[in-house]
Amino acid sequence: MRFYRAMKPLERIQGLPEKKRKIILWAVLAALSVILLYFLLTNFQNKLKNIKGGSEDFQKDLNIPELEMPELNFPSIINEE
After folding, report:
1. Which of 20, 47, 73, 81 pairs with 38 at a CA distance of 20 to 30 A?
2. At 52, phi and psi to the nearest 5?
3. How far apart are CA 28 and CA 26, in angstroms?
4. Residue partners of 27: CB distance under 8 A and separation at least 6
5. How far is residue 15 from each of residues 1, 19, 20, 60, measured CA to CA in Å?
6. Which of 56, 54, 73, 53 is nearest to 64 (CA)?
7. Residue 30: phi, psi to the nearest 5?
8. Crossing angle for the helix pair 18-49 and 2-14, nearest 10 degrees?
9. Contacts for 5-11: CB closer than 8 Å, 24+ residues apart
10. How far, in Å, are 7, 27, 30, 45 from residue 34 at the CA level?
11. String of b and e for 41-56 (b: at least 16 CB within 10 Å)?
């Protein structure tokens, strides 16, 4: 009995014209996408908060080497008279 009740809205959608069915399909997909994006962003935000110590400690833990930029002394290409 419950299964029949759940199928009734689907039968009504199947009876609609194709254009309306496509609109319903894209609306449902858009709603699901927004919900999944919300969960993805909140999970990402929580993971960033749980990184140990903060940005300075995080950079030290990665052991990123310090790069020194050499001085660039290019000769002048402008004709001086």
Report:
1. 20
2. -60, 125
3. 5
4. none
5. 21, 12, 10, 62
6. 56
7. -65, -45
8. 120
9. none
10. 25, 11, 6, 16
11. eeeeeeeeeeeeeeee
pLDDT band at 65, cuts 50/70/90? confident
Alpha helices in the chain (DSSP H): 2-14, 18-49, 55-62
The answer to whether 24 and 13 have CB atoms below 8 angstroms apart is yes
Contacts of 54 (CB under 8 A, 6+ apart): none
* Residue 21 near residue 13 (C-beta atoms within 8 A): yes
